[in-house]
Structure formats: C-alpha cells, structure tokens
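Deliverable D2.4 — example input (structure tokens):
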C-alpha cells in the first residue's frame, strides 16, 4: 500500500516550544524574544549556538533543540570554553541518572579535550579520601545529589554527600569562583525539584553564575523548574530554540508492526516474526521494552527468541534497574553487546553499524483505569520521542505497538494539514485502527495547548471544589498552627501536571499508539522516516475445532475487561457485532479442513461453520454459563450444532411481541421482523393442525408428507411474501441457513416440520399404510431472554459515572458537568 507519509514530505515538525510568555515575572533577554537558530547542513547546532553564549554574563540559558542535533556535544564545547577561560569557573554537570555520569565524564574528556584529572565523577566519592576532588574544575553529578534528594528509602543525603557539596560551595566563596550549572536532559529530572529540595540550591546563591537547561522534549513541568533556577540568576532568562529539521541522510528506516494481541509475551507472533526477520538479515539488535517483566520473559525464553538472540550474540546484557553495589555497571547499556531492557529510553546514543532497534510498546491490556500501566512510557509522549531518538546512526527502528483507537478526523483541521493530506491520513489510519467501541475518539491536540488544559483543570475542577474553604481559612488567625496552604498552580503543574496530561488525553499519552501513528504518518520524527507498515495478521480456525479456536483467540487477542464493559452496556446484537468486527476488521481469517493442508480464506458470511460457531461463542460470552448451548468437554470448548430451526426459533422469540404498526424501526428491519412473524404464523398453523392417530393400543400425532390438505390460497400468498422477505435476513441471504431456494410450498411444509418438530418417519397402520412424519416432540420457543437476538437494533446503553465516583473525583454533579463542558469547549476551540 502507498505509505501515508509520502503526502507529508515538507510537513512542519511540531514540538513543545518555550516562549517568553511562559515567564511573565522574569526578564527575557534579547528584547523579550527567543533566539531562533538553525542546524547546519549536517543537522548540528553547535556553530549556530556558540555565538549566543556570553560566558561572563549571569543568566539562565534555555536550549530547546531537537534530538540528534548535537545538544550534548554543543554544551560540552561550552564547557571547554569555560575551562580554558581566564576567569575562574567551576562547572557542575547535573545528569538525571547515575548511569549517565561516567558517559559524561568520558565525553567531556574526549570532545572537550579536558584531562581526566580535571573531571570528577561523583560516583567515586567514597574512594576519594584526600578530598582532591575540590581541585577539579569540572564536576559531574546527578540532579538528585545536587538537590539533596535522598530517594525513597532515606530521609536525608549521607553526610559524605552533604560534605562534598558544602566543601565545593565554601571553596567557591573563599576563592571567588563563579559556578556554572548544566542540567542536561532536564525532562528526566523533574521529579527532583520538590519545594523542600529547592532550598539546597539556594546554598549556591552567592557563587552561582549561570544555568544551562537543555532538552529536546520540554514539558509544562519543566517551565516551573526553569523558574526555580532562573530566580538564582537575577531572574534573567535567555531562550535559544532550534528549528526542527530532518536530515534524510541521517534518518533511520521506521517500521511499524501493529500487534493485535491483547497481551504481549516472548511467544507473541508479531514479536517472534520481527526478531526472526532481523536475525535472518544478520542485524545487530537491541530491544527496549515497556516493562521489566517482558525483559525477563524474553531473556528466559531459551527455546524462543531469547535463545535465538543468545546463540547469535552471546550473553544478553539485561538493562533494568536493580539494587546492589554492582548494579550500576551490570545494568548499563553496552554498545558492544545485545541489550534488552528498560533503562535506555533516554541518555544513550546507539551508534552500531548494521543496527536494528526494536521498541516494544505496551499492549492494549495495560490500559487499565485512569492510570495506565505503561511502564517506562507512563509519562506520555515525550518518553516515546526520547526512546526513538536513541538510534544515532542510520539503521532500522522497529516498533511493536497496539492498534490505535478510532480518530476524530475533524480535529485535524487544527493540525495545518491540507484537505488532501487529511484525506490521505484518514484513509491510512483507518487501515490500522483498532475496531472497538469508544465514546470519544482520539482528537488531534496541539502540543502547545497543554497549558490551557492544565490551568482549566486546576482552576475549574481541583481548586474550585474547595475554593470557599480556601478563602475561609485564608482569613482565619492560624498563628502557631500547622501550615495549611492550598498548592499553587505551579506546584500542581510540577507534581501532577504531566500525569494528568498523559492519562487524561489520548493524544498526549493515554493512547500512545495513536500519537505514534500520527507522528509516523506525518513525518514528525527527526531521526527516522516511515518505510513499512505491518498490520496483517492471520488467524487459522480448524474444522470441528472452531469453538476452541475462538476461545484461544479471545484469550490471546482481546481484552476481557473491555468486553465486560461492552457486555454491561450493550444489548446482544451490539455485543455480537463488536465481536464480529473485532475478528474481521483486524485479522485475515483462514479455515483448515480436516485432513487438508490447504487454507481457505474466510470473508464475512462466506463460511457456514464459522458463522454458526461465532454466534454460539458470542452467546456464551454475553450470557455466561447461563447460555446452555455452549459446551465444554475435558476443559476444551467443543463445536455445537445450531441448525436453521434453532436460528428461526430464537428470532421468532425476539419478534413475537413487536407491533410493526407502532414500531419506529427502519424499513429493512421491519421487513425482517415481518418475515419471522409470518414464519411463526406457519409454525403455529402446523401446531394447531397436527393429525392424531388413536387406537386401542396406540396414540400419537403426525403429519402427512404433503401439505395439500393444510394450506389454502391465502397461505400461498403469504408463502410468496415470505420468500421475498427472506432476502432481508443476512444469514438467509448469504446461505448460512438455506431458505431462499425453497421451490414450492410443499417443500416449505416439509422444512417447517424439520425445523420445528422432532419427528420419525413411519407408516400409518391403516389403509394403504401412508408414509407420515410421526411427532416425537414440538421444539418450543426459548422460555427466557437468554437467546440469540439479532432483531433488536445494535445499541449501547452508555451510563454516566455513578454518584460516588463523581463526588469523589469532582465534588458534585454540577462540577462534573461543568468540567466535561469545559473540556469539550477547549477541544472544539
């Protein structure tokens, strides 16, 4: 198929901007305007950036540049300028993770040509008994050390760490040293900037000279961090922003593999196929997984892909967070090995030749409640951008992801697409989207609209819920009482803003797959370009084992929790339609007959056996064990006979009490209903006109083999109408249950006996011993509503959240309604 991104060759790459208006209380240098720079022809920003860095000027510099543009290299060249300057500077590089400290030490040594003796790795602090670290001009630390964040298991940093920082501060004071702070990958260090830890930064207030805050994926929370840091540099901010440009010569090939399975494990078909293909093509492979559990599953799968990778590359390097003194070295990404893990979605540069980077996104089963179980991608779309950016040389990037939810294509009018691009995107997206019920489709949202959503939620939901109490307490005299101050908007944004955006808005992370699909289709990734889409998945059902196949299919590919919600809020007809569309929209269905290797494609209503068993399976999934047609033998579901008469009785039951004169159903449905009501007319006529044989020794009811004495001219007219109406029923029209070929009313009469009665061929013992159908029993209509009902129109019964939920999360029904209206207004605007 034609790739959708061919229509987006020059489409602008959207990114999170940092603007002067974000900091109204601060002095924005460059006449209150940000500085826009452009990468050179090779895609790097160093040459454009350095002229704007005034070493001796005290301020906070924000560098907002794309992944792969050489931000880290550029800042290392700035470190070099400070190192060789005649002024006396101390440069402190603060990384978000311990695993990046040594990497920065090595990069500074090599790229800035600074002797290792002048670069201190704070991880060696416990081995430095002479305090010689104070003589080194470059200190590489972590952000949590700098802010005094002791982690979850301690109340305060160790005395050794506090002494280390205090000694650097004292030396800078005593020797009039200017201190320059560099915060790289700031997006991954946000959690450290809690109010209680900011006081530790103020220890540097007399010696701080400059802050550099660097990221490719700034977020709303990072703006609060910038405010905290810029306050220490006389509230002066310089914003430098690089245009996002893709350099085709440096881009990797992006392959999207849409995974239909509800869960994901090492044996999942799509994952096995991708790894097998990469091994067959002799690629060097690294795998980034959304969860630690999946990492373990892959590595321990010695008979599957884990064993294959080990046979190819030797011991696998597991990159997951763990405790222990050697964990840092053991769990770091290694460019010389095959790495499988969770901890290299940021900060790592993969520079292998002939390389394939496999990223495994969370499957549909992880979408549970408000807080999605997305593992390393729980913080939203920035984590996706960072993960993809790990590939720094031309190669292949393969992403295994679930099908995205339905999209609101009307929202694309805000994206800057032309009508032709919207049409192209719509057509392509529909080929990969998940078929499922979603009350509100995914909407395109501008990245720079996040501030509006956060502020509205804070003011009109959270704070408004207790506004009267806030005002009341503010006017109280609470001297000497425990502090009681409602968190400010900035504190809310810092602590909970990203969680709110990533979990509440599909496009910002609640449906990562939708964002990924949009970005790949519209060429939003700087370091890669879409070259292939894999969304075809074969499912094979075997003759006489269709129920088992459907049961396995449901367990493997579908979401039990989702279908429970559907079942509770839909009638049987809608549930069945959802099940059908789930199978036929997302998979290529094939049928294997006994004793044959040939696979026969199954299209909608083409295979009687499959369609009948799907009806039975849907009945069981909808009604549960109360549905008595479903059968299991030795814990294995078995195929059940469900014949035309069963289908007729179920539908007659559903039509029996419908008054067509009063009904508002559409004309096609009315004609279907009329068909089954007419069919029941003939059924009841047979029941009322059964013949009785009675002798001294024998009594039974029977029918003759001919209808000549039963039906009149009026019945002939009804039969003609019945044949015409039969085309309105899809099961009859497609021949799943044969009816339309019934040539005459006499044949119809025999089919009625076959469908509605249990009979035995016999002969009357009188006269010429006429052939008859002896009635054993009458097949009754279902006595309850636990039956196949494809008459009632497919309907969902959406219910608003219950009162307890609304009160707990919104305070009142009025607040809930207000918030929903505001969200809709913001989305519409």
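Example output (designed residues):
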């Amino acid at each position: 198929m034609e790739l959708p991104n061919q229509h987006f060759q020059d489409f602008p790459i959207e990114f999170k901007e940092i603007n002067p208006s974000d900091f109204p209380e601060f002095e924005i240098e460059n006449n209150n305007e940000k500085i826009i720079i452009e990468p050179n022809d090779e895609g790097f920003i160093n040459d454009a950036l350095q002229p704007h860095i005034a070493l001796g000027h005290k301020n906070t510099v924000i560098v907002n540049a794309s992944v792969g543009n050489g931000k880290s290299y550029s800042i290392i060249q700035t470190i070099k300028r400070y190192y060789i300057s005649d002024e006396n500077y101390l440069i402190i590089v603060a990384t978000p993770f311990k695993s990046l400290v040594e990497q920065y030490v090595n990069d500074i040594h090599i790229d800035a040509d600074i002797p290792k003796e002048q670069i201190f790795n704070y991880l060696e602090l416990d081995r430095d008994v002479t305090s010689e670290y104070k003589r080194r001009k470059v200190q590489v630390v972590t952000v949590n050390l700098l802010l005094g964040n002791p982690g979850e298991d301690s109340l305060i940093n160790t005395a050794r760490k506090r002494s280390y920082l205090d000694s650097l501060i004292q030396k800078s004071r005593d020797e009039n040293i200017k201190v320059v702070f560099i915060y790289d990958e700031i997006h991954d260090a946000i959690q450290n900037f809690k109010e209680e830890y900011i006081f530790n930064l103020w220890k540097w207030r007399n010696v701080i000279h400059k802050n550099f805050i660097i990221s490719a994926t700034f977020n709303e929370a990072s703006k609060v961090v910038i405010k905290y840091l810029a306050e220490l540099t006389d509230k002066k901010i310089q914003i430098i922003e690089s245009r996002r440009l893709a350099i085709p010569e440096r881009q990797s090939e992006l392959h999207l593999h849409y995974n239909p399975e509800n869960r994901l494990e090492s044996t999942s078909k799509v994952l096995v196929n991708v790894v097998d293909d990469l091994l067959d093509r002799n690629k060097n492979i690294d795998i980034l997984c959304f969860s630690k559990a999946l990492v373990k599953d892959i590595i321990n799968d010695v008979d599957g892909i884990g064993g294959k990778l080990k046979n190819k590359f030797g011991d696998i390097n597991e990159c997951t967070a763990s405790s222990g003194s050697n964990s840092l070295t053991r769990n770091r990404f290694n460019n010389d090995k095959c790495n499988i893990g969770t901890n290299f979605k940021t900060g790592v540069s993969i520079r292998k030749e002939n390389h394939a980077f496999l990223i495994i996104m969370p499957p549909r089963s992880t979408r549970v409640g408000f807080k999605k179980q997305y593992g390393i991608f729980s913080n939203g779309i920035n984590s996706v951008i960072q993960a993809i950016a790990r590939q720094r040389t031309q190669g292949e990037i393969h992403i295994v992801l679930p099908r995205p939810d339905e999209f609101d294509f009307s929202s694309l009018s805000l994206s800057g697409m032309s009508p032709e691009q919207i049409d192209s995107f719509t057509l392509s997206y529909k080929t990969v989207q998940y078929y499922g019920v979603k009350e509100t489709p995914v909407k395109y949202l501008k990245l720079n609209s996040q501030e509006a959503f956060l502020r509205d939620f804070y003011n009109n939901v959270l704070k408004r819920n207790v506004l009267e109490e806030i005002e009341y307490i503010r006017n109280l005299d609470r001297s000497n009482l425990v502090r009681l101050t409602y968190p400010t908007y900035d504190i809310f944004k810092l602590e909970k803003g990203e969680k709110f955006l990533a979990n509440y808005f599909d496009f910002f992370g609640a449906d990562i797959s939708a964002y990924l699909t949009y970005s790949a289709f519209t060429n939003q990734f700087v370091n890669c370009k879409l070259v292939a889409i894999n969304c075809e998945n074969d499912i094979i059902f075997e003759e006489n084992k269709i129920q088992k196949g459907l049961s396995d299919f449901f367990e493997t590919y579908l979401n039990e929790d989702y279908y429970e919600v559907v079942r509770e809020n839909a009638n049987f007809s809608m549930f069945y339609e959802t099940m059908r569309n789930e199978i036929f929209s997302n998979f290529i269905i094939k049928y294997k007959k006994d004793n044959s290797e040939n696979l026969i494609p199954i299209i909608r209503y083409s295979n009687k056996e499959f369609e009948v068993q799907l009806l039975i399976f849907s009945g069981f999934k909808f009604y549960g064990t109360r549905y008595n047609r479903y059968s299991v033998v030795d814990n294995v579901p078995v195929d059940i006979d469900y014949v035309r008469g069963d289908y007729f009785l179920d539908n007659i039951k559903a039509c029996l009490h419908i008054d067509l004169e009063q009904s508002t159903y559409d004309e096609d449905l009315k004609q279907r209903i009329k068909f089954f009501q007419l069919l029941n007319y003939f059924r009841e006529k047979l029941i009322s006109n059964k013949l009785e044989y009675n002798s001294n020794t024998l009594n039974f009811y029977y029918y003759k083999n001919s209808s000549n004495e039963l039906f009149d001219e009026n019945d002939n007219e009804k039969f003609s109408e019945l044949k015409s109406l039969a085309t309105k029923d899809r099961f009859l029209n497609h021949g799943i249950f044969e009816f339309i070929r019934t040539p005459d009313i006499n044949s119809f009469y025999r089919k009625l006996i076959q469908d509605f009665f249990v009979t035995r061929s016999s002969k009357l013992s009188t006269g010429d011993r006429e052939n008859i159908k002896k009635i054993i029993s009458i097949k009754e209509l279902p006595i309850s509503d636990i039956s196949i009902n494809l008459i009632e129109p497919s309907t969902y019964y959406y219910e608003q959240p219950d009162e307890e939920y609304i009160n707990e999360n919104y305070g009142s029904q009025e607040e809930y309604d207000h918030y929903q209206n505001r969200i809709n207004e913001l989305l519409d605007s």
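The chain is about 40% helix and 15% strand.
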